Amino acid sequence: xxxxxxxxxxxxxxxxxxxxxxxxxxxxxxxxxxxxxxxxxxxxxxxxxxxxxxxxxxxxxxxxxxxxxxxxxxxxxxxxxxxxxxxxxxxxxxxxxxxxxxxxxxxxxxxxxxxxxxxxxxxxxxxxxxxxxxxxxxxxxxxxxxxxxxxxxxxxxxxxxxxxxxxxxxxxxxxxxxxxxxxxxxxxxxxxxxxxxxxxxxxxxxxxxxxxxxxxxxxxxxxxxxxxxxxxxxxxxxxxxxxxxxxxxxxxxxxxxxxxxxxxxxxxxxxxxxxxxxxxxxxxxxxxxxxxxxxxxxxxxxxxxxxxxxxxxxxxxxxxxxxxxxxxxxxxxxxxxxxxxx
Amino acid sequence: xxxxxxxxxxxxxxxxxxxxxxxxxxxxxxxxxxxxxxxxxxxxxxxxxxxxxxxxxxxxxxxxxxxxxxxxxxxxxx
Amino acid sequence: xxxxxxxxxxxxxxxxxxxxxxxxxxxxxxxxxxxxxxxxxxxxxxxxxxxxxxxxxxxxxxxxxxxxxxxxxxxxxxxxxxxxxxxxxxxxxxxxxxxxxxxxxxxxxxxxxxxxxxxxxxxxxxxxxxxxxxxxxxxxxxxxxxxxxxxxxxxxxxxxxxxxxxxxxxxxxxxxxxxxxxxxxxxxxxxxxxxxxxxxxxxxxxxxxxxxxxxxxxxxxxxxxxxxxxxxxxxxxxxxxxxxxxxxxxxxxxxxxxxxxxxxxxxxxxxxxxxxxxxxxxxxxxxxxxxxxxxxxxxxxxxxxxxxxxxxxxxxxxxxxxxxxxxxxxxxxxxxxxxxxxxxxxxxxxxxxxxxxxxxxxxxxxxxxxxxxxxxxxxxxxxxxxxxxxxxxxxxxxxxxxxxxxxxxxxxxxxxxxxxxxxxxxxxxxxxxxxxxxxxxxxxxxxxxxxxxxxxxxxxxxxxxxxxxxxxxxxxxxxxxxxxxxxxxxxxxxxxxxxxxxxxxxxxxxxxxxxxxxxxxxx
Lengths: 342, 78, 523
Fold this sequence. Notes:
The structure holds three protein chains of three kinds. Chain A has helices spanning 5-31, 63-66, 72-78, 92-102, 116-119, 127-139, 141-145, 199-214, 231-244, 275-292, 305-341, and strands at 57-61, 82-86, 110-114, 218-223, 248-250. By secondary structure, chain A is of the alpha/beta class. Chain A has a five-stranded parallel β-sheet, sandwiched between helices. In chain A, α3 crosses α11 (305-341), α4 (92-102) runs parallel beside α6 (127-139) and α4 (92-102) packs parallel to α8 (199-214). Chain B is mainly α. Chain B is globular and about 30 Å long. By secondary structure, chain C is mainly α. Helix content of chain C is 74%, strand content 0%. The radius of gyration of chain C is 25 Å and the shape is globular. The interface between B and C is medium-sized, with 21 and 32 residues.
């Protein structure tokens, strides 16, 4: 039988692409970090170290979430287990794929999606570019972890990956610095209407909504306090929430006001929260969740011994951190007071 | 009609030490670069009172001493 | 749409290629034209008007020139005698000259107005400031459309080539438009010639497996140069040149060497990507590089580096200027006053001066680009003056010059001179050039690992060595892709897979790096 050269070439190209794909996947595997500690920014990767189906509240977001929501507070108060999966510049595309893989091990009753991720985008990229970049990163681990070749040595190359590291703070990263933000008018309505959610972002938000539905998780939209937020964006998310009948809490608005004091509760002039701010938002979100969802108290329950032990250490650590943060806050206030007098 | 001797004499003046055979390749071997060729054009047009136009400045008109001689003779007739 | 973006490589090229391959032969140029217009419109939006107009002007001039020739031929045979024929020919020649001048002035005028007007006005005002009378001019600042420096000059070359008779005018507007807007060469060149490109562009060869594989291989090699080498070196270079007062001695040397590496890897890498892209469609673009770092003189360097820019300036500026009437007169004047050598050399040097200033300023409106051109002009003229003198004094030199050791010495010398040129080229203004050169004497005591760690430097060194080896093999006349294609399948595929993996793993992309936009696209 005579095969036409066109078909022969097509077969050759496809065979080569398969070999290439295999090589890319294999290389990607060896470039994955050796511990889940380094899988993602902050301590998001620690969720892989948790026992299966133990997390009831899952917070998905970027750095605002990682520095703003401390699930261990809920455990110490109500025995509710939570985890903050937050990492710098995490986009809705990242979140969709990460959530999908978390569902393989966990079945949270509530998923909290932090909305800062909807409009955040690295400066010089278009929305389409950042979508392609992030999605490619998620599909091909080689792209996401390519720079890990710097960590490889001959001896650790073939070492087994150990993904059992657990985070005491459950994804939360406490910051005790204080740098006041004087802009308290960022949420004023400038009459510009609602900010449009880009098509690509919307498409992936829809996928997240469906994913949560399929797994029977309640989805809550939450906006963390940050001065990069504004009224137009609030309206944009509000419209989306109404369209899909999702609860939406914006902690930048007085209706939900957790009591953020911008002079003392931010480590960087309003971009993120420090320990003082995080405790207020965590408490506010916690009471909303307890009031609206049926979340079990796991304290003292078999299988949660590690949580009980972690909670003790956490409480001790937190006392020190709060004291330190308070000290910095007092100093900041005294500096501000002086400058007012002068 | 001009002669090869005249061409070779001018070549030697423009590029001291250059004394090629009539059919020796000059451009591809790097013995004449574009700057040398322009100096040669100035010398030729002065010596033989020629009018050289940009159209004549093709590599094939300068790549051997013979080609240069042919060019000069052709331009002198016009 | 950047040449190293996902969308260009995987979506744009793929879609255009499929259209091109599936269309019948006579419609294939339409796929190329459509692709080119989409590419330009997506990247530069409304500025596409500039390209459309430049094509219109050059096509119009080409049509006019051909029409005039036809008129001459038709009318001439009907005329009674030689005097009338001569008069007609003179008239037609004058009209043709007027056409070519008008077209060129229009294109160059737009180019200068958009690119240089603010700079000219600034320089004029600065000059007037020092004068007793005060006069300031204000000019509109235009946004420079993508690729203006390339398609304007290619449009001029088309008109002049038609005028000189070295290529035939295009009968249809879209043909010139395709030539000028062809996406592989509109952003960073090469400067192609209509006569050389139009046969394959307008009547493309059949889609071929070999052309596709060779094209893709060249694109991957170009990506390696850009993503692995140039973007990595960029971080070091940017730190040293943007904050030059913080660095001295070895750090400045390293920054300069890395800039040379970056610019070479990036520009030749871009040429590999665009030539590879065009090769997918069977179109052979002009080559812009021929192993420049094996040059023995700076003049030779410029014949091997950005070849098509040098060729353009030589054919459309340097040579016409020298054989122009005023220059011939200047030659005569020099000859009568200063002797035969001056008569033939000085006009050439004047022409060189004009050309080098043009090369400098082509890269951008600014005094440091002027000095950059001047630097090479001075080096080349010094060479022209001292070479004969040196040969007179040391007759033995003629023999030494043919020894390998002397050749290596010449290459090293040229390499150093080129690096000084690169320092002038990249430094943040003339003040910074002087500061950085002066700081060379001050030892640099901090760590030389600036913005990059030791492993990054390792990648750069290995990358540079690889670049050198490939250039060396090309210099020895090897055709690497052909030779590799003749090897057994396993070896071949291993090399290809490895090449792709190297780009993906060692590429300087992602959160830890700060890649640069294509440099030459800004000129």
